[in-house]
Amino acid sequence: MNRQIFTDLLEMKEFKAVKSILEDMDTATIAELLGELKEKERREAFGLIETPKKEKVFAQLDDDMQSCLAKTFTEKDGQNTREVQEKQYFDTSVLIHAKNRIGWLLFLMLSATITQTIIAHYESAFAAVPLLVSFIPMLTDTGGNCGSQSSTLIIRGIALDEIGFRDIFKVMFKEVRVALLVSLGLAAVNGIYILLRYHNGMLAVLIAISLTATIFMAKLIGCVLPLFAGKLHLDPAIMAAPLITTIVDAGSIMIYFTIATKLLGVV
């Protein structure tokens, strides 16, 4: 178990991710992990353990930890977990909340100018075929969702020590196969929709190719970025999502209009 990522998730209040990780761990591993945590982290993590496991984990802890946790969790499990989460949120000042979030939000805002520049470069293309613009949100959103899915699974694997940088090519190969199946399904649905609504075969082909390329790009970026972040001793849970959003948005639009200029003959 990667203790650093686990504690980072606790610090960022990513309780759903922590709970998901704990659900996949056996009781002995959880007990060992709790023994490595600081007292506050231990209480938080223990409160997120599902009820059937909690008693078994508790029985494997030493007397000091049992005493500490027994004082903290004396009420019903669901209420305790909720109280811990609420306390963490409300005990953190507004200034700290803002400080923790504004950095990446500022980065995302500034990086959006990259996407704006790309769109401006292809202004003549959507001036010639205005309908092209209406598909931009679908492409960027699909790419972002695909990238986020991959990164979430990889970060979870890193946290559980199931995946490491050494597995990067195995991960990429698997994500490429996933991307192939996903893109075939989504491209087919979009192609049929465009044919039925717009009766435009070339537009359907354009969207299908662009969507396929976007999904492949997003899946690869989503799986590779967290691994490189871990290799560089950065927190993948913090930096992966903003970078994936930025890169996929810019990349998907560039792919889309590059293919559009070739297929539709607009410049």
TrEMBL record:
MF terms (GO), sorted A to Z: monoatomic cation transmembrane transporter activity
GO cellular component, one term: membrane
Positions of the SLC41A/MgtE integral membrane domain: 136-259
Origin: domain of life: Bacteria
Spans traversing the lipid bilayer: 102-122, 176-196, 203-228, 240-259
Keyword Transferase tagged: no
Coarse class of the protein's main subcellular location: membrane
Keywords of the record: Magnesium, Membrane, Transmembrane, Transmembrane helix, Transport
Domain Magnesium transporter MgtE intracellular: 25-77
Subcellular location: Membrane
Membrane recorded as keyword: yes
Membrane topology: Multi-pass membrane protein
Family indicated by similarity: Belongs to the SLC41A transporter family.
Protein name: Divalent cation transporter
Lineage of the species this protein comes from: Bacteria, Bacillati, Bacillota, Clostridia, Lachnospirales
